[in-house]
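Project standup — Tuesday

K.O.: blocked on the structure for the chain from last sprint. Re-posting the sequence here as requested.
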Amino acid sequence: MIEELKAIGLTTYQSRALEVIFKNNLSLKELSKIANIPPGKVYSIAKQLIDKGLIKCTRTRPKKLYVENASEIISKLTNNQETKLGKVISTLQDFGTLIDTKENRSTPFFDLGTTIEDNRRIQMRTFVESENEVLQIINIHHKPKYNRQSKTLWETAIINATQKGVIFKSIYPKKVILPKILNDLSKKHPDKFQVRRLDTNFTRCDIIDGKNVLIKLVHEDALAYGGILFIKNKKFAENLKEIFYKFWSEAEK
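H.V.: unblocked you, prediction finished:
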């Protein structure tokens, strides 16, 4: 446990102290002895953990250090680490994208397409790279009968994704008829391919695993194709996920 606590940001002494306080209510003297922390350091270590909101101290004497709820503390530590790591990853991805863009090189973090071939390739990333969940907003400009060759490939890829455990939640316009392969999927596996109905002109997008976003710039004229973007950015994905679930709550089942 000590190595795991160190891995998510605590010092060696903080990790030793927290590990034993998880199991027992301890005085400073007991903590020093059990966690092998020098007596001259144990007070400052305990204060650091209290200031972080990880442990508490009784008011009665002798004062005891304790953890009120181990699961909540672990959750707090991991959430803090995920936030920090997310910022680091985002900064590194932005840096890599900037360098590659300047050199006119492609980058998986920001994939921009302007042709029908790009559209086919980049859209496929949603289904191939997804691991857990895909949230889709299909807007009122969706034309299920147009570009059937590509759509058939994507629909098959959706089937393959659900077979590896990916859950799809898709918002479709009210009057759009689902292709047979997807309609059959929603009936056979309603937990894996969930569909609700809502007429919206919000940007056509996929939110993949809460960290990647695909955006399509489409128009009521199916031939007026604007382009497609695949962006790896957790914060952007979280923003769109919040919007998605607002629509999802309003949509008809």
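K.O.: great, moving the ticket to review. The chain has two domains: 2-75, 108-250. The first helix runs from residue 2 to 7.
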